[in-house]
């Protein structure tokens, strides 16, 4: 079991940056594949980025490539999502997810690949 707590969300103007954190307790985050998803009002939860259990592979949604970076600090049991050049369309609740995916080198990209979820953190980007 792992518990996930996101933080770092907020209100920023377009073009600015934010770094989201996902603190894992219970089993260490290095044991799990990690992912970030987001959900805007009235829309389904969408994939943003993921990191394989090995840490060697990442995967990004096309809409955030070259702007967002997922990373992990095993010593702090924390996963990060660094977001730069934010756009109003990035506005959403961002969720951290984890799963002990069998393939150590695979970075899952669908919500049903993850069994553990955080409560979400709001990111609002003003025009």
Blueprint of the fold:
Layout lengths: L1 E6 L2 E4 L4 E9 L6 E7 L6 E6 L6 E3 L7 E6 L4 E6 L8 E8 L16 E2 L3 E6 L1
Parallel strand pairs: 2-11
Antiparallel strand pairs: 1-3, 3-8, 4-5, 4-9, 5-6, 7-8, 9-10, 9-11
Q: How would you portray this structure in words?
A:
There is one protein chain. With 127 residues, this protein is mainly beta. 0% of the residues lie in helices and 50% in strands. It is built from no helices and eleven strands. It has strands spanning 2-7, 10-13, 18-26, 33-39, 46-51, 58-60, 68-73, 78-83, 92-99, 116-117, 121-126. Strands 2, 4, 5, 6, 9, 10 and 11 form a seven-stranded mixed sheet that branches. A hairpin with a 4-residue loop joins strand 7 and strand 8. The chain is globular. The termini are far apart. The mean pLDDT is 94.
Relevant terms:
single chain, 127 residues, mainly beta, four-stranded antiparallel beta sheet
**Run of helices and strands:** EEEEEEEEEEE
Number of helices: 0
**CA gyration radius, whole angstroms:** 13 Å
- What's the end-to-end separation, in Å? 40 Å
User: Could you say which overall geometry the principal axes of the C-alpha atoms support?
Assistant: globular
The total strand number stands at 11
Let me know the largest β-sheet: 7 strands, mixed
Approximate strand percentage: over 45%
Global structural class: mainly beta
Helix content class: under 10%
- Average pLDDT taken over every residue: 94
Low-pLDDT segments: none
